[in-house]
Amino acid sequence: MEETGIPALDVVLMWGGAVTVVAGVIALAWRAVRASVRLAARVDHFMDDWAGEVGRAGVPARPGVMERLATFEDRLTSVEHELYPNDGGSLRDAVDRANARLTRMCPDVDSTDGPGPVPPQSVP
């Protein structure tokens, strides 16, 4: 490092450089701590949503993800009877009846090939 020849100015420049370096390190450390705190808060919110929260005064309880999935599975199994033919009241029975009516209305259409050609119509 070169000296300016003025001892008081050299001391001020040395201390100014040291203060600048220390302030830069403190600023970087502050940014790292602030980012870590924000990340920790987001992880905390995620964990609260995952595990759920117990009800407290004025705030209802919130179920966690696993509880919600269990109720979703229960709802799916309660609808499962609609997928299989039964005594005529299921959705599957209604689809089968509609297909049977369609087959009676269009007997020449093969159900495995999809819709057949449209028959020509006479124009009056």
Structural features, described:
The protein is mainly alpha-helical and 124 residues long. The protein folds into two domains: 9-52; 63-110, no CATH class. The protein has three helices and no strands. The mean pLDDT is 84.
Q: What are its keywords?
A:
single chain, mainly alpha, 3 helices
- Supply Rg: 38 Å
Helix run count? 3
Q: Which structural class best describes the helix and strand composition? A: mainly alpha
**N-end to C-end Cα span:** 107 Å
Please count the beta strands (DSSP E, at least 2 residues each).
0
**Major sheet: size, sense and barrel closure?**
none
Shape: elongated
The total number of structural domains is: 2
Give the rounded overall mean pLDDT. Answer: 84
Strand proportion, as a percent range, falls in under 5%
Helix content: 55-70%
Q: In terms of per-residue confidence, which ranges show pLDDT below 50 for 5 or more consecutive residues?
A: none
SSE series: HHH
